[in-house]
Amino acid sequence: MVFIILMEQRKNMQLVHGIEQIKLNIAELERGRVSTGAKLEEYRLLIQRGTCFMLYRSAKGVAFAPSRFIGYVGNTLVSHKENATRDGRVTNKAINAILGQNPTPNALLDKYYRQFCVANGIAPSNKGTFGVERKYWLSPDFADLNTLLEEMAMHDVQTAGELGETEREQVVLARVGQGDFRTGLINLWQGCSVSGCDYIPALRASHIKPWSVSSNEERLDVYNGLLLVPNLDILFDKGLISFKDDGGILISPRLPETARIVLGCNDTMGIQPKAENIPYLAWHRDNLFIGRDE
User: Fold this and answer.
1) Cβ-Cβ contacts under 8 Å for 115 (sequence gap 6 or more)
2) 3-state SS class at 102
3) What are phi and psi of 56, to 5 degrees?
4) How far, CA to CA in Å, does 23 sit from each of 31, 88, 98, 136, 249?
5) pTM assigned to the model
6) Is 202 helix (H, G, I), strand (E, B) or coil?
7) Which of these, 145, 60, 47, lies nearest to 105 by C-alpha position?
């Protein structure tokens, strides 16, 4: 009899096959989030025990939706609790197919997940269910991961109690390559770090280790920066070029030869790094540079 009931439940719980179905489930999560009693408790348990989450925008900011809940058509907090056959491995595949990507671990997103838990009265675990590392998708609400991380990091900066107003202003200005950070790079490099172009108004102050993943000290560190002409700045920012410890350029195989010519990028280019640049350059090569054609 139990087997028959479980099979009937599995038959009735259809997997989502479109983003609109996921959005309806997210709306149900949001109703649970602002409710009281049993519904709120069920919502909190879902967030606490989840392993794979989709990030989405809510009226209260960025929020997290567990795949095991949003992966079933027309799910409710009541029906989900009673669904003995719910299986995150199955819902993950359905969501992967809709988004065209798999969830991935991310230390910064995990930090924001834990902050989200605390803000919603949830005691976050170190890892997901059964000690599995948590993983994340972005909903179509977000343009890309870097933009989201910058947005969330900016919120941290604006609310950080340990920052004085002057330092906070400089950290914010450094995000867009302005303020003391830009002035320091101009003094350090005197022109484009690669081409030597000294028409300063056309040059961009670029972080080597991106602002979004840097500490406030790193965000203001002049050695965590290059002064670049716009074409090289965008290539560096996208991980299509990087630099060796000796300053020699690395060009990604993802960058077509025709684009290299148009953008003025070639194998003879390089920088003259300072010793203090080298740890940042290593970070860029290891984390951003697209070193092989995937």
Assistant:
1) none
2) coil
3) -145, 165
4) 12, 18, 12, 16, 45
5) 0.71
6) helix
7) 145
